[in-house]
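Known limitations

Structure tokens in this collection are predictions and should be treated as such. Users comparing against experimental data should check residue numbering before alignment. To illustrate the layout, the record for Fatty acid ABC transporter ATP-binding/permease protein is reproduced below. The input appears on top and the generated tokens appear beneath it.
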Amino acid sequence: MADKDDAMDNTADSATDIATEELEVPRDTWPTIRRLWDAARSQHWRFYLVMVSIIFYTGFSLAAPAYSARVIDVLWDGISEAFARGGDFTVTWDNAGRDIIIYLGIWTAACGFYSLQSFTMAGFAEKLNLELRNRIAHKLNRLPLAFFDSHKPGEVVSRATNDLDKMSEVLQTGLLRLLTAVGAIAGSVIMMFRYSPLLASIFICFAVLSTVVTKLVAKRNLALAAERQKWVGHLTGAVEEAYSGRVIIRSFNREQASSADIHRISDKLAEASRRADFMTNAISPAIRMIIRIAQVIIAVVAGGMLVAGQLTVGVFQAFFQYIYHASEPLTQMSFTINTLQSALASVERVFDILDEAEVEPDPAPAAAAHVEQPTQGHVAFEHVRFGYSPDKPLMRDVSFEARPGQKIAIVGATGAGKTTLINLLMRFYEIDGGCITLDGVDTRAMDRGELRQNFGMVLQDAWLFDGTIADNIAYGCPGATREQIVEAARMAHVDFFVRTMPQGYDTHVANDAENISQGQRQLLTIARVILCDPKILILDEATSSVDTRTERAIVHAMETLMQGRTSFVIAHRLSTIVDADLILVMQAGTIIEQGTHQDLLAAGGSYAELYRSQFM
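Generated tokens:
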């Protein structure tokens, strides 16, 4: 009966797992399965081998109880005869030894095929995981910037890692368990009916009853588990908020109020956990009672049949083995199906990425308009139209011209479209109408890599890669010598700071390094652009994170660097762009004013008002 206890415990565990597992249902089950099957085309042979192994494993595992009935009957008859003669019973090769060896061989073969199917399915799942990971890796390199702007980084990483890991795990366990369960249940029920239709019918009645009870309790437990998870989320958010805002909390003497709020949420979580745990723990005695009643009834009926000579001792014990073989997978079936559905939903999220629209391919080499490293830097926007979504246009008719060597300043309120203008120039987004030209060549006719070689960009948010300071400065120019790196650092006024670091230019840094301030990171990114020596500069609030004295030094260095180069400067502090050759004033994606500093002040428009708000 020990095996039966295990089955009862598995039933209770299944109810718990159903409740705690996030039940995700795929949108299109069969199309997703067919697509997943196509993705595993090179691994089909592994799956076929798994199916063959399952068939043999199921056959041997079902044959073992039947053969055990023969072995036990032989032993029982031999012992009974020996007892009747008053002698001893000795196991020999002919009277039971051969049958015992065969019985051992059956279980050995079943174990071998089980190991084979598990190993092969693991290979199938992991190879499929690798195939989809490679597809996602290639896909991410071909997705437009708009995709990353509309999806959180954690969401994309989760789809490429957690969702695929979940799929692999479920294929190795859930799918294999489901396939073996179908064979085990069907075969065990057939064998039970073969031995005794009456006993088999009793088992089926109680099996259906236990399944219904499991479903009902699991449904209730699922709601309680969802409530518990809700309060876990509230508590996590409250604790994180209290920790992150501890300075503000103390500044306003809100420690007691914050603590009371956390305790209130904790009490709610404790109450929800109490109810969920009670329901989780209550299912085990309930299922145990149902199974025990079934065992008692079957044992009583089978005992009467045994006494009446309708059953042998071997068949009696074999029948209980088949009960175990059928009840364990039966009670786990609903949980297995739920995990498979959840895995398919995860696969659908992966396919959603693979179905995203890719960037338009670059023109073929023969058709591409090749531009050697431009010596002019003549940029023109001609009636450009653009919108992040087709139904919400941002730019309707933007036109301006930047002549070689000019300094173009772009100003406007937050969200006016300043950075969007630069993104269009770099072809991070494709325009909806009009054209953008570089030295008279439409940028859409150029290879993206060839186009971006002409630009050097310093963003407002400085980013350092994991590596040394020298590696970060030389990021855009990997072949630069140490002398060139140091010279670029000097021009960016960062050389002195670098030499104060423990290993100088070989100091290891990362974007989240606490030993480098935001302003110092900005200086390193400026040095990175200086080293590249581009023909066109883009400075997106490049001096926003440095102090006034450093800002003046950087501006001076930039003025030297910008000599003979076309420069686009996005600025909020108008003092840095009063010497610009052309100032573009943007509002709601449209250029509402353009001209020099003096011309715009004389016009008395939006720029003049903005300038007076800063200096008057």
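For this record: The first strand starts at residue 379 and ends at 386. The chain is about 65% helix and 10% strand. Please report discrepancies through the issue tracker.
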